C-alpha cells in the first residue's frame, strides 16, 4: 500500500497492542474476578510496564474494572455488552413475576444479572427509571445491587444490602440476593423506595421471599 493510501491512524505497533489487550481480557476471564496485574504479567509473559499500561487502558474504556482496595481486576460492562448480555430478551416468565412484585411493592423494582461476575441490568422498572445507569454499572459501590456483588466477590456473601440515602433526596435502595439451587449468586432484585421504608430491611426481604426462588428458576 502506498503511503498516500495508508490509514494515518494505524501504525505498525498497534496490531500488537490490540493482541496484547485481547490477551489480557482473556486472562481475566479465565482466572476470574480478583486476578492481579502481577499474575497477568506472569501468565502472559508480558513486561510489567506493558501489562499495567494495557490494564489502565482497559479500565479507562470500561472493558475491565479495578476492584476496591486495588485487590485486582474483573471484567467490565463493555465485555458484557460485546457478549450480548445487555441486549438479551428478558427470559420467559421473568417479566410477569416482576409485574406481580411491582403491584405489591408500590415502588421501583429492578432486576440485575450477575452472570460471569458482571452486573448487567435485565429489567428496569419503566415507572421508576434509574437516575444514573452508567454510574450504577461502572461504580459498584454506588448502589445496593453493586454492593451485593462486591460482598460476594470478597467472599462475604450477604442476603441483602440496604442503601437508605441514594442520589434522589429522600429515597434509597434495597437489593436482595437471588441464588441458584447451589447457592451461587445469579441476580439481584432491587427495590427503589422512600428512605423511611428502608428502616426494616428484614421485612423487605420477607416481602420478596416467594418471588426470588421463582426468579432464580426462570433465570437459570
From TrEMBL:
Span of domain HTH iclR-type:
15-77
Q: What is this protein called?
A: HTH iclR-type domain-containing protein
User: What SMART domains does the record tag this protein with?
Assistant: HTH_ICLR
Alphabetical list of InterPro entries matching this protein = HTH_MetabolicPath_Reg, Tscrpt_reg_IclR_N, WH-like_DNA-bd_sf, WH_DNA-bd_sf
Cite the Gene3D superfamilies for this sequence. Answer: Winged helix-like DNA-binding domain superfamily/Winged helix DNA-binding domain
